[in-house]
Structures are given as C-alpha cells and as structure tokens.
Amino acid sequence: MNGQWQSIARRIRVPMGFLIAALFLLLARPSVRSLQGSLLLVIPGIVLRCYASGFVKKDAELTVTGPYAYTRNPLYLGSILIALGFALASRSPTIALTLAAFFFVIYVPVIRAEEAFLRSAFPQFEAYCQHVPRLFPRLAQARHGTDSGRFSLALYSQHREYNALLGAISIYAALVLRMHLRS
Question: What total number of domains does the chain contain?
C-alpha cells in the first residue's frame, strides 16, 4: 500500500494544489500587514526554487551542487516556505492546518518515492544522503567530487520554474483584490 500511495500522491499533488488554492482564496482574510509579513517567506521560497531548478538535471545525473549541497530537496523546501508565507498572508488557522496536512500526506511519500528512484539510478546517492539532510539544510556546503556545478538559465527555463513566480504574483493579486472587496 505504501508504494501505491506514493504513486497516487505523485499524480494528485498538482490537482490537489489547485483545490487547496481555491480553498485558500475562499477562506483567506488578508491584511496589509499579513501580506507584507508573508513576503519574508514567499520571496526566499521562490528564489530557492528558481535557483535549485537551474542546477537539477532530472533523471540524467545526481545533482549535488548549488543548493543541493545543503539539502537534498531544495525545491520542496522552497515550496514549504512559499506555503508558510501564504498561510501567514491568509490569517487563517484552517488554511495553515490544511497546508501542513497537504505537505505531510502528499510530499513525504513523493520524496520517499523519488529517493527510491535515485537510490536505484545513482549508486553514489547513499553517500550523498549521509552528508546532506533530506529537507532542513545543513549550514556548511557538502563537497561531492570535483563537479563545481553552475546555475543554468537554460535548465531554469526548461523546468518552467518561472511559473512559481507567476503563481505567487497571481495569488497576491487575488489576495489584494479580496482584501479590497471585503472592505
């Protein structure tokens, strides 16, 4: 069943994200202060996702440079920061609990499934895991081999990570509109 849920979680995470976004916009009660405060989490989350996407070569090689030298899952860490920021912006405990449950129920199995794939595809993954934490970053960069790795704008574009920025802008626009309609 665990492997089954991992497969289901991978398929439903994006559609569930849209459903949660609709719930978010329905329940949110933003204020100017909550929107400003949320930027302290949303902006670093977007920057981290953008930066990480410029390093990762999905399914082609094990990425161990850039933000991947600090955490094995910088994209998910960025998503968590963004979600926490929007939970703060919403000023809704229901939204905060829903987002926490969503990340736990969906992303923990997805991360485990991805790690199982990486273990089978890349023999050096086990050694990498011993030096780099799964989610919460280490303070010092872990060194793996001689590959220095560089940010690639082409990879960033290929992964269409600019959608995270466009999505955040759209959500902020909807929150500002909701705030003005409410007053």
Answer: 1
Residue 179 to residue 153: CA distance in whole angstroms: 36
Give the domain range for residue 167: 2-182
From the list 81, 52, 43, 73, the residue with the least C-alpha distance to 169 is 43
Would residue 59 be called left, alpha or beta, if left means φ above 0 and alpha means ψ between -120 and 50 degrees? left
Can you give the pLDDT at residue 42?
98
Show the tokens assigned to 133. Answer: 């934490």
**Distance between CA atoms of residues 20 and 15, nearest Å:** 9
Question: Where do we find the tokens 């990425």?
Answer: 63
The enclosing H or E element of 150 equals: none
pTM: 0.88
Model confidence at 1: pLDDT above 70: no
- What lies within 8 Å, CB to CB, of 15 at 6+ separation is none
Calculate the alpha carbon distances from 114 to 3, 10, 93 in Å.
11, 10, 31
